[in-house]
Amino acid sequence: MGESVYSNYPPPLNPAQKAFLVTTVKDWAVQNGLMVRPAPTFVAKESNPHGVLATNAPVTLFPSPFPRTCFEEATALQTVYNQLLIDVDDFISRLWNVHQSVKNEGYTQTLSLGLYRSDYMAHSPSDASTPSLKQVEFNTISSSFGGLSSLVASLHTELLDSPPGHPIAYPSHPLFESNVPPENTAVETLSAGLATAHKAYGLSKSTPSLPTCILFVVQENERNTFDQLALFKQLTKVHKLPVFRLLSSQILDHTSVQSSNPSRPLIYRPPHSPESQFEVSTVYLRCFYAPSDYNTERDWEARTQLERSAAIKCPTVLNQLAGCKVVQQVLAEDAGPNHLASFLDNTDPHVMARLRKTFAPQYDLSTNGRGRELALNPDTAANHVLKPQREGGGNNIYKTAIPEFLNSIPESEWKRWILMELITPPSEAKNVALRSDGEVLGGDVIGELGVYGTILWDQAGGKVLHNEQGGWLMRTKAKDVNEGGVATGFSSLDSILLF
Ligand code: ADP
Ligand code: MG
């Protein structure tokens, strides 16, 4: 039924229309900061020795249709999802050494900030008359693209009404009639979460007291700088807060924890003004989510320094762990102990049932388990994806490659993977994308909708001080590609038109 929306979308472009759209999108991207740093495979280091260049983020020329019911369900459930992970923290607390060592010493900060993104697809198997919402994963660390995705919604909204009142930028199509992408408040929502944490931190704990600041900790060679800067700008211009960016490799050089002070405030000395000192209220991590972010012992030491300090961490080590796929798998289990219910004991059973409906079946690979059986049989493996427990991107094994892969690694390592049933996105969806290297590619696509949420809670007692949903991200990838990340080069940023 819903499929018919996709069958004649997007309207075909003649060469002049396509050239006009591509030029318009390219210029709009530069003018408005819808940009990324170029990949070294596109612009070689020799051609850009001083790193001055940037290029458009990969972006679709058209917004993609998305079922209204699925969008509304995703936004309605976000604050419930935010809350779900509070207690999961405790549940997995034994898994992590860093946490253990800080715990032995005692945490000095009980507040915890989450900036989350829950990713979904509109599950549309051929035997279903209406699409349903299914979760791909839940991100608890470095949930990115809030900054750029709001820009894509603005770009497509402008194109839908260009020139104003007499739109002709796009060929006409029924879906375009008095329809624009829903409001996208990702920048406002994510920044408000950080600002709320900053405020909740309160006065300086140092003697003499220091001005407080927010610290973004970022990766070396980050290409997605402008996405981060959108939040940075909102915090400095609208919330009027001091914000700094620091490379994770420089944490130990420019921050310190005053050990003589039992509150353990985190002091930041900006490299460009070492005589200035700030006390960090909130650490926002846009790094430390993948093993490649921990190259040496020094990186672990740096993470531990942040963790044991008084700064509010976004996220804490525990909250990062709560986003691991193995936790999502356990929560999604409908046999055995009902973990979901035990973590949401004050939640309306009806809402809990709606949450559960968004889970696709997921399994561990324990001996004699159902997961193992499904993964090793090529016929059933074909309908599954195998994921490593942690986040990071680009590491999944798909479909019939699963049995072969498992047989190539020692059985003792199988416990590091979870098996998930494939979600079936609408089969006829199409779009056209302008890639960062200027290539324009059209064809069959798969869309993944992310919904942002923020939560600030007190781990001592679990009191929630702030819990908000706001903003979304649509990423669209070519259908013949399994992986989905924009940063990894597989997807393009997109927006949505609800139907
Ligand atoms: P990560 O982003 O940490 O690599 P994801 O769980 O998001 O891990 O998986 C990466 C990509 O694989 C997704 O963006 C999506 O395109 C695809 N994918 C993951 N799980 C499923 C699933 N159950 N059904 C269909 N596609 C999936
Ligand atoms: Mg993902």
TrEMBL record:
Family designation: Belongs to the eukaryotic GSH synthase family.
Signal peptide range: none
Residue stretches making up the Glutathione synthase substrate-binding domain: 212-322
Complexes and interactors: Homodimer.
Membrane-spanning intervals of the chain: none
InterPro entries, sorted: Glutathione_synthase, Glutathione_synthase_a-hlx, Glutathione_synthase_C_euk, Glutathione_synthase_N_euk, GSH-S_sub-bd_sf, GSH_synth_subst-bd, PreATP-grasp_dom_sf
Binding site for ATP: 137, 325, 387-396, 398, 420-423, 448, 477, 483
Catalysis performed (reactions): gamma-L-glutamyl-L-cysteine + glycine + ATP = glutathione + ADP + phosphate + H(+)
Keyword Ribonucleoprotein: no
Major enzyme class: ligase
Pathway(s) per entry: Sulfur metabolism; glutathione biosynthesis; glutathione from L-cysteine and L-glutamate: step 2/2
Protein name according to UniProt: Glutathione synthetase
Residues annotated for Mg(2+) binding in this entry: E137, N139, E391
Pfam family, one: GSH_synthase
Sorted UniProt keywords: ATP-binding, Glutathione biosynthesis, Ligase, Magnesium, Metal-binding, Nucleotide-binding
Cofactor(s) demanded: Mg(2+)
Binding positions for substrate per the UniProt entry: 117, 141-144, 222-224, 228, 286-289, 475, 486-487
